[in-house]
Amino acid sequence: MRVLHAFNLANDGFNVVRGLRKIGVDAELLIQKPSHVASLPQWEDGEVDMFQLGNPYDPNWNAFTWNMPDWVHVWNANKSWYPFSRTLRWLRIFGKLKGYDLIVGHVPFAKVSTLYQTLYGKPYIVYDAGWIRYLKNNARGYARARKGYAQAAMILFTNVDTEQMFHEHGYHNLYYTPFAIDTDKYTPRPNHIDHDYPVFFHPSRHDWAEKGNDLLIRAFARYVKRNPRALLRMVEWYQSPEDLWASKRLIQDLEIANKCEWISVQPKSRLVNLYRDSTAIFDQFVFGAFGTTCPEGLSCGVPVVGYAKPNLWLQYHETMPPVLNASTENDIYEAMLSLEDEATRKRFGQEGRQWVMENCSDVVVAKQQLALYKQVVESN
Description:
Layout: E1 2-6, H1 12-22, E2 26-33, H2 41-45, E3 47-48, E4 64-65, E5 72-76, H3 86-97, E6 102-105, H4 113-120, E7 124-128, H5 140-150, E8 154-157, H6 163-168, E9 174-176, E10 199-202, H7 208-211, H8 213-226, E11 231-235, H9 241-253, E12 260-263, H10 268-276, E13 280-282, H11 293-299, E14 304-306, H12 310-313, E15 324-325, H13 329-338, H14 342-359, H15 362-378
Parallel strand pairs: 1-2, 1-6, 2-5, 6-7, 7-8, 8-9, 10-11, 10-13, 11-12, 13-14, 14-15
Antiparallel strand pairs: 3-4
Helix pairs in contact: 1-15, 8-9, 8-13, 11-14
């Protein structure tokens, strides 16, 4: 079976394809140029000269040091790519899709998936890592995507809090899949030595409505009164600049700017070391579900503080992700107090690594998805 993951939002496709290839599947990946830097495989696996990177939404590829494998293919979607219109460029790429038994489409494949099906009469799978939250919008592209979702042989969804949203939209042919984590890369640091002061790392984007960054900042302001040496390290990443500015204003108002450190968005080769260098990772406190930050941190053997809602997770996993559960300012503060105990830090780190190995490793996820691929192809 030849499988293509078409497009690569947040490197979800790359991570699954790598897992599939580890178990011997003839799987390949199509990426789009330009793409946001976080959707490029070289951001996941390469080295980056941040001074040369430029616009993160159309980054300079010469800033990367990375040997692209022959199973990664690049589609140039640049509008200035004379003499082809965007429609003709789509038709050219469809010609390359013909040779695969199955397409697993990431954003924005659903916008053109019905055309693919019309041309070749083949089934396809939609991979949803949260885009369902936005499909209620009435913009033209979202209308096409809704139709693409409706005609998919199966929708793979990664977020445990979104199944009800699919049902509300009328989509019922669903299959849950965890995010695929490369547990060979996201590993604990050997002989980890704690700082003599706590370093709390918050790599999540600043989006108060979806992440609850303000809750963390307020909890930390309380904690530094107890431990003035504590450090909160955050990333200048945001859904809208207003949320980032709001976080910075709140930090100034609470008079803790000298206890906070801001860093730029980091490639994964550096992010893994930032995970390992932390006393704990603080993710999100709103949805009760996680993206990749939580399992990446857990895989590194570092305690994670975030909100995991039991009635969501236990629908799909036998056990809860072992995080210090927090959804309020006081919950977060109490977690900071708990992390002062070395035995607690060690226990959550070890249990987190084991949970990811059993539930989210790229090989585990690849095996789960391969069974579904075979089912879809054989039933066509």
